[in-house]
Amino acid sequence: MSAHDTQPDTPRDDRPARRVDLGQYALAAFMIVVGIYTVFDAARLEVGFADPVGPRVFPYVIGSGLVLVGALLAIATARGSQPEPEEGEDVDLSESADWLTVLKLVTVLLITVATVNLLGWALSGAVLFAGAAWSLGSRTLIRDVIVGLVLAIGSWYAFHVGLGIPLTPGVLDGIL
Amino acid sequence: MENFDLLMGGLQSALTPMNLLYAAIGVLLGTFVGVLPGIGPAMAIALLLPVTYRLEPTSAFIMFAGLYYGGMYGGSTTSILLNTPGESASVMTALEGNKMARAGRGAQALATAAVGSFVAGTIGTILVAFFSPALADVAVDLGAPSYFALMVLALVMTTTVLGTSALRGFAALFLGLTIGLVGLDLNTGQPRLTFGVTQLVDRLDIVVVAVGIFALGEALWVAAHLRRKPAHVIPVGRPWMGRDDWGRSWKPWLRGTAFGFPFGALPAGGAEIPTFLSYLTERKLSKRKDFGRGAIEGVAGPEAANNASAAGMFVPMLALGLPVTATASVMLSALQGYGITPGPQLMTEHADLVWTLLASLLIGNTLLLVLNLPLAPLWARLLRIPRPQLYAGILFFACLGAYATNLDPFDIALLVAFGLLGLMMRRFGLPVLPLILGVILGPLMETKLREALTISGGDYAGLFNEPLAVIIYVLIALFILGRPFIARARARVEGSATVEDEKELVN
User: Fold this and answer.
1) How many distinct structural domains can be found in chain A?
2) Which residue range(s) make up the domain with A30?
């Protein structure tokens, strides 16, 4: 638990003080860019007649706030402020991050986005489940596909029969 | 006693066999998702929003009430058996609870958590029933300036209290406010930050934002750091308490309730402070030497505080239409789905619905106790589901929930975008709640700000012309000035707890 930001962290024995987390500069830059864009986007709005505030003021305030916080974050980073990555039940922070798995998962999700209308939810959902399990290191592909199909077809029927929402049938139109 | 009669009337309309079934489903599902990592009650309710297309409002809310309390209880189960608090509100439970479990007293820890949650939730709900109508009567006369000040209070409190870094809290808050800007400006009908995309014009669906940031963000974050060895779950039998445990628990339950309810009822952001205060108090009052080695008071107090604050959350939600937690905001969007506008007039226009909702909270609470005491060993086993399939399932249901609202793949793409944002927030230690509240309260704030300033003709003094507004701003100032003391006190408590941990490891 680190103390307040304005007080420099007391260096502990197990880590060198003043290690700069370069990633935070990227976050600060992202916030500053988004803030500036928000201000520009608001500047082209028209203010109606007899509208003392108008649609611009709020985005101006928020955009400037983002830029300000982004700048403060950059300064805090330079002074050695470290983020505390979130811990969790299945999170092991002792090893370095495995971004390849994240990339695989995002790819599987984007495949779902691209194919869901064509293949229909019952197939796309199954591909999503099996693909995500595989990305996360499961090697029981046959079982995952079967579980995925059961989940996807089951949810299709649950929505169709239970709630009257027809999820896209896709290529299985007429079979389901 | 008029409120009491109304509450009894609510109980009558809520207590049908069908509704009890929905309550049971809600409790079981809620505990299920509460025990699973990566999804909390807000997520579960968001995923179940489609059921509101078919169910009566009463039945839907009974299910949500069960989900809400079930989810909270599931969170305390993992704190006790795994020492991994799923949310900030369970941090204090884990301190003593996990030590109890390691000393073979897990069953007693789970029991005191369950009974304490029941006691606190029941007292809390009854207090809501008595306070909300009175508050709604007052709130009808509140003007835009006071509302605006209340929302500023809610945002400042959540931003500075949660997490350890106020700067990162503000970063999350402003990102959330920016997301809340996307869509048509409500007064003039001009699109803002839509990049010319038609689907963005009618504002972002809070469900997609919440599910993306909570569930997808969590799944992606876990994917990057997946623990290769299974977590160590302490096996546990059926929860029960001996006479001694009851004797030691009942006072902390009541004290925890007294801490939790006011903090939940103020738009002051959640259960973190009251659970912390409750832990501190029990520790000070304890005459025994076993604090830090699994004292039952250290579970009983914070658990009660947590649930009382969860019940208290309904006061601002029902009386003012102000959601102060992610769960409250998802529940409000369910209300809006039924064409009900939350706010002070809710109590008068939809009185029967409100009383039924409060009654269903009582029912959900009772069922939680009845169902979960025998089922605890089962929940403990659930913690052993293989992780790849578990997170694949979470991704599957998250996409299903996003897709089912409009049957538009664009919503899944949006979900992925927010999932990546959630991943980034976890990587850089940005707290999630300020962002979600920014998304929800941002548009409301803007509306109230413009109302207040239109009335005053653009004069900024119009923000301070109500006594309540001025009082709130003074409170905010006091809070910000007092913050370093709170932070220091907390660091001391947690510091001493970890020091004792280290001593144990040495022995």
Assistant:
1) 2
2) 22-79
